[in-house]
Design brief:
This protein is of the alpha+beta class and about 90 residues long. Helix content is about 45%, strand content about 15%. The strands form two sheets. It has a two-stranded antiparallel ribbon. Strand 3 and strand 4 form a beta hairpin. The chain is globular, with a radius of gyration of 15 Å.
C-alpha cells in the first residue's frame, strides 16, 4: 500500500514523518534508498529503477548513485539499529 494519497483535487498527500524516517546521510548528502522510495509510492523497487533508467531527462544527474560495500554495511547497521529502537515499548 502506498504512503502517498492522491486527493480529489489531484494533489498528493504524504506523511512527512514517514519520509523523514527513511532519510540517511551518505557522502554528506541526504538520501532515500530506492526500496524506501518504492514503499512510499506503493510500487516494486525495480519500477523505481526502471523509471529513472528510462526517463533520464526527468531526474537530476546525481539523483541516483551506487553505494560502496562499506556504505552499504553502515546503512544496514543504521536500519537495524533504528528497527530495534522502534520496537522498544
Amino acid at each position: 500500500m502506498s504512503d502517498i494519497v492522491k486527493k480529489e483535487d489531484n494533489t498528493l498527500a504524504i506523511n512527512i514523518q514517514k519520509v523523514e524516517d527513511k532519510i540517511a546521510v551518505i557522502r554528506d548528502v541526504e538520501v532515500i534508498a530506492d526500496a524506501d522510495v518504492a514503499v512510499l509510492y506503493g510500487v516494486e523497487t525495480k519500477r523505481i529503477n526502471e523509471a529513472v533508467r528510462n526517463n533520464p531527462d526527468k531526474f537530476p544527474e546525481r539523483y541516483m548513485f551506487e553505494l560502496s560495500k562499506s556504505e552499504l554495511r553502515d546503512l544496514r547497521s543504521k536500519i537495524s539499529t533504528t528497527k530495534a529502537k522502534s520496537s522498544i515499548p
